[in-house]
Design goal:
The protein is α/β, with parallel strands linked by helices. The protein has helices spanning 3-11, 15-19, 38-46, 86-91, 107-114, 143-147, 196-205, 221-229, 245-252, 269-275, 285-288, 291-294, 331-340, 399-408, 412-424, and strands spanning 27-29, 54-58, 77-81, 97-99, 119-124, 132-134, 152-157, 170-172, 178-181, 214-217, 236-239, 242-243, 256-261, 264-265, 300-305, 308-310, 315-316, 319-320, 323-324, 345-349, 353-355, 361-363, 365-366, 384-387, 390-393. The protein is 27% helix and 21% strand. Strand 3, helix 4 and strand 4 form a beta-alpha-beta unit. Helix 7 packs across helix 8, helix 8 (221-229) packs parallel to helix 9 and helix 14 runs antiparallel to helix 15 (412-424).
């Protein structure tokens, strides 16, 4: 038996025993999304009565963790998220999850300096023939850096976690403190099917993406509508935070022929199987989302969804009034990175209207953002805003030109009212 196997066995404990290594006051990075060790998390939460002031930090919870669902855990184990998703929204009112909105390029700094993470507890792959455990599809992002300063490292070995290669993609068994084993498959990452409006926007954007472009896509129905339309293009490359099912499709179709740089991946079971083949590598987000490095890619085309905009181009992508709906993620990083790219363009896309609870149609373009709405992308960084009615070119434009461009892509039923409001507040004179 090789030395690493002996080390592995010496550190192997049960999930319950691993959970017992968590002490009051610990500040734990539990991994994001599919890198969260769900059995270990539940075992720690089961000990809540013994613990005080334990902080669990994660991102985009994909599992229905009980620590979020009951106020009895308050004061014992506190949840934090650096990217808000469905679970964070659902249980926010319970009061045991604090939501944050940190640019992906800065999360590594926030975990070290603000959350003061001292414990790493994450899902990993089975060991390879040299005794290395791989962080998986959602672990290369920040785990390697945290492992460099964490005082305690606990890993849960999961046979379903793929061995994905890349810089800082793995950790040796000799470098961890405790190993437990528990298998679980991953939930399918929920992705909304493209709407007719998404398809209309995709049809508008397709001509803006030249052959040979370097693409970055966000998530959701709109990103899928655009991603799959790109199969008519040639010789694309990828520089993105998230590698998606549509990108896998384009790679298999031979549309992506250039380099692929990505920080993490979420999607279908087929996507995780593909990642395990080793055809692409993942890179830490402090690198993929560094706007200076992004800008080194010529013809970078950044396409992301947003929720609303005012007439001058202040874009909100993360809140509905004062309610945090999502987080900034990498949107700001890539908007600014595209500005530095030779031939680069960034597109922020949204439907021109939404339906209110009473079924009223509301314009997503307004003279001013509603109270509480977050300015995710400041107007001086916005290049193009897109609805199903066209593209507004805002970059470096005067206020009147911005206002007129935004009115031109608003729903026709709202254009006249928007113009009257813009005149009334002095944004334009006629």
């Amino acid at each position: 038996m090789s030395d690493w196997k002996n080390i592995y066995r010496s550190k192997l404990v049960s999930v319950r025993e691993a959970a017992a290594k968590i002490a009051s006051g610990d500040r734990i990075w539990f991994g994001s999304s599919t890198s969260t060790p769900i059995q270990l998390m539940d075992a720690v939460v089961d000990r809540y009565a013994e613990l005080t002031d334990v902080h669990i930090i994660s991102s985009l919870f994909l599992y229905d963790f009980k620590v979020l669902q009951d106020a009895k855990y308050i004061g014992h184990i506190k949840g934090h998220s650096v990217f808000v998703g469905p679970q964070e929204r659902l249980y926010h009112k319970i009061g045991n999850i604090d939501n944050n909105s940190v640019p992906f390029s800065k999360v590594c700094i926030a975990l070290r300096d603000y959350y003061r993470v001292d414990t790493l507890a994450v899902d990993v792959s089975l060991p390879d023939e040299e005794g290395y455990l791989y962080w998986g599809a959602c672990g290369v992002d920040w785990h390697g850096e945290i492992a460099g300063y964490a005082k305690k490292i606990i890993v849960q070995v999961n046979k379903y976690q793929p061995r994905i290669k890349g810089p800082e993609c793995r950790i040796h068994v000799s470098q961890v403190d405790y190993i437990c084993e528990a298998d679980h498959s991953f939930p399918v990452f929920p992705q909304r099917e493209p709407t007719d409006t998404d398809k209309q926007i995709a049809a508008i954007l397709i001509d803006q993406i030249p052959d040979g472009a370097c693409i970055q896509l966000g998530i959701g129905g709109l990103a899928n509508a655009i991603g799959y339309r790109l199969e008519e293009k040639k010789n694309l490359s990828v520089y993105t935070e998230m590698f998606t099912d549509s990108m896998m499709h384009l790679l298999k179709k031979g549309v992506i022929t250039g380099k692929i740089v990505a920080g993490f991946s979420m999607g279908s079971p087929e996507l995780y199987d593909f990642l395990a083949t080793g055809q692409i590598e993942l890179t830490p987000l402090r690198i993929t989302n560094d706007e200076n490095i992004i800008g080194q890619n010529d013809n970078l085309i950044s396409i992301n969804g947003c929720l609303m905009s005012d007439l001058t181009g202040q874009v909100c992508s993360e809140s509905l009034g004062f309610t945090q709906y999502s987080s900034i993620g990498g949107q700001g990083d890539f908007v600014r990175g595209a500005l530095r790219s030779k031939g680069g363009k960034s597109f922020l896309c949204m439907p021109s209207t939404i339906r209110a609870k009473d079924n009223r149609m509301i314009s997503t373009i307004s003279v001013a953002l509603p109270p509480g709405a977050v300015v995710t992308v400041q107007r001086c960084d916005v290049m193009y805003v897109v609805t199903e009615y066209g593209i507004a070119d805002l970059y470096l434009k005067s206020i009147p030109d911005r206002v007129n461009a935004m009115i031109s892509i608003a729903h026709p039923d709202f254009r006249e009212a928007l113009r009257r409001e813009a005149i009334a507040v002095g944004l334009i004179v006629r």
